[in-house]
Amino acid sequence: MCIGQIHRIYGQECPSTQELQNSLRQAQKLLASHEASYLQSLRSLKRKISQLQNSTARVAAKASDASCPKLEAPLNGRKLGKVLLPGHEVHFLCDSGYELVGSETRQCKESLTWSGQQPVCKEINECASSPCANGGSCTDEVNGFTCACARGWAGPTCQSPTPTFFATTTNISAATSGAAAATSFPLTTLLPFVQPSKCSQVQGTTHCTCEAGYTISGRDTSTCTDIDECEVFHNGPAGRLCVHACINTPGGYRCSCPAGYDVSRDGRGCRDIDECATRQNNCTRDRLCINTYGGFQCVKVECPRIRNVTYVKTSPTRCERNPCPVDNKACSQAPNSVSYHHMSVVSNLSAPRVMFRVSTVRMIGDTLRFAVLGSRGRRHFSVQRSDRQTGELLLLTPLQGPDTLEVEVEMSELEKRALIGRYITKITIFVSQYEF
Question: Which of 259, 236, 231 is nearest to 246 (CA)?
Fold first, then answer.
């Protein structure tokens, strides 16, 4: 109707039905062409998005596989820690009789290189402290030493005088007067702590002596009794005979150690038995075996349980927080990670001393703060800064065992005084009841 009215106004006739159908077919072809072009563009866009997603996944997978080169345990030592990803640490220990030279702990940095220097285990020179007393000469050995004692001294460190007692009697019998004769008293089987003396006569004089570790029993020159070295020489000039307990034996003594220790090679000290390394423990597979002085502990590491917050265990001793929802403020304020460390120390450690270090490989914010959490830990510990990125846990007072202490060190990261991350390190310290 509109078209007809327009044509009538200008004095023209309306187009025919055939012309209108042709125009509509052309419009339909144009729409179909545009639709095909639009669908082709959508397919091309989907293909590019898919390619970007695959490329991102490959980069992420490659990044997740990136790790620092494997570190070998030092000769005569061992390595603790198997995770080689950035931010993780590897610890080194030396076997008994060796001391560590180099970095005790090395951390995998973001550049996929290790901090510190590769350590070596150097044999300890036990003779450096001059353990052989009374003129004895020291020979260094692996995890021990031996003493060659001067004349008149005996014992592992030449601390015990060699008692050579004798008694003299005069025989004026005419049969032996003026003549040289040698006789000995008959030996009899006596108790282990009592022995017959050895006597001889020379020109009418009788000399009686005892073996090392025995002495003449008063006026009875024919009998030698054992010397109790544990009583007589226990606190001599060279120090205590035994670090732990002294047991008197016929003609000598021996040292003993409490359960969980072996007597050291010098015969005086006590050496801890590593039940974890020697598999002398009953820890199940879901628990960590922690060697302590005189024993061991089976520890189960569990991630924190916080409402509306979840953690995943990224290593046997580390839990990391899963991403938080945007509107969950409580989750964003929860610790980003919680690490668990265990230490074994002897009783009555001297203080102050640095017990542990906490650091970050890469800072996102502009400030790091360190603090000790919990009331019990504050009594024995504090934190101090060693550099911009490292805090040190400081022992303030000596620890008396047996005891188990737990202390938490918090490292907070801030950007313009606003908290952007919290990292908790939980340290459990097993204190032995002994000072060795």
Answer: 231
